[in-house]
Design goal:
The protein is about 25% helix and about 25% strand. The protein is of the alpha/beta class.
């Protein structure tokens, strides 16, 4: 395989990742000519209505590439650490892996471990940086290639690349940042000396806590702008929702609209919903067990009278 321009020799790399976000980085390493000697991913988990054990997206891609896959429940025991060290990797690349790496793992590769993190560190360290950036109304976000250390996303940075958030959903932004991170990762690996580690500033640190299920219920007492951000942050999953007559209805896209009234009240025939200030007009919705549809399609066969209060 032809090596990337400027790459003096291919590296022996351990890749550690789990969700779809990590797949472009794995692909990029292989396409650049690196020797990915093993992939570490979360164990297969039950999925779908049949609760069939399903390998993670990274696991599936690694199998398709013919790369050995390891799925340990933990990396804390000596046997797992010895097996990792025995791979004699030059470097480990971590992208949304989901397990804490003990110091023995961080120290094993010759060049340590690099993390592809989906935020502009030090803003949004932690588990859900994309969702939190949208919820907070951030103007931009991006990716950071970070040299890992024992702290939670506290390691020195080797490179950053930004992108505007605009009206993007978490789904669209995740896909964009996955590609952005993969490209930046290859740039860094091509010439590590041109991307020396720089300590993160102490100012501007924020933490992206894991998303809790309760956060996806829409609180119409908030401003229309905040509700619209909540809808984008949770689209396509888990989906921001309200309840009507005991049924959950997810709103997958909405516009901020004019109007007002008691928060949660439907104020026109287009299903515009009053918020704490302003209103939102759902554009794309999904009933429980149904496919996503436009609001117009929903209203052709589903009655939501004026004055209906949603919770």
């Amino acid at each position: 395989m032809r090596l990337a321009k400027g790459l003096e020799e291919k590296m022996r790399i351990i890749f550690m990742g789990t969700p779809e976000f990590a797949v472009p980085s794995l692909n990029a390493l292989v396409e650049a000519g690196h020797d990915v000697v093993a992939v570490y991913s979360q164990p297969p988990r039950p999925a779908g209505r049949g609760k069939t054990l399903t390998p993670t997206p990274v696991h599936q891609r690694a199998m398709a590439l013919g790369i050995d896959v390891q799925t340990p429940l933990s990396l804390k025991d000596g046997a797992a650490q010895a097996a990792f060290a025995a791979l004699n990797a030059d470097i480990a690349i971590v992208a949304a892996y989901g397990l804490i790496l003990p110091q023995a793992i961080l120290n094993a590769p010759r060049l340590g471990c690099l993390n592809v993190h989906a935020s502009l560190l030090p803003r949004w360290r932690g588990a859900a940086p994309i969702h939190r950036a949208i919820l907070a109304g951030d103007i931009e976000t991006g990716v950071t290639i970070m040299q890992m250390e024992a702290g939670l996303d506290t390691g020195p940075m080797r490179a950053k690349r930004s992108t505007p958030i605009g009206r993007k959903t978490s789904g669209a932004l995740t896909a964009e940042l996955a590609d952005l991170g993969a490209s930046l990762l290859i740039d860094v690996l091509t010439d590590l000396n041109s991307h020396p580690p720089v300590d993160q500033p102490e100012d501007g640190v924020t933490y992206a806590a894991k998303i809790e299920k309760a956060e996806s219920r829409i609180d119409f007492t908030q401003s229309a702008e905040q509700v619209e951000r909540q809808i984008r942050a949770f689209a396509p999953a888990p989906g921001a929702f309200f309840e009507y007559q005991g049924e959950r209805i997810r709103i997958l896209a909405a516009d901020v609209a004019e109007g007002g009234g008691s928060p949660g009240t439907i104020i026109d025939t287009l299903m515009t919903i009053a918020c704490g200030s302003g209103a939102i007009r759902p554009v794309k919705v999904q009933r429980a067990g149904k496919s996503a549809m436009s609001t117009a399609e929903l209203l052709r066969g589903y009655t939501l009278p004026l004055g209906t209060h949603l919770s």
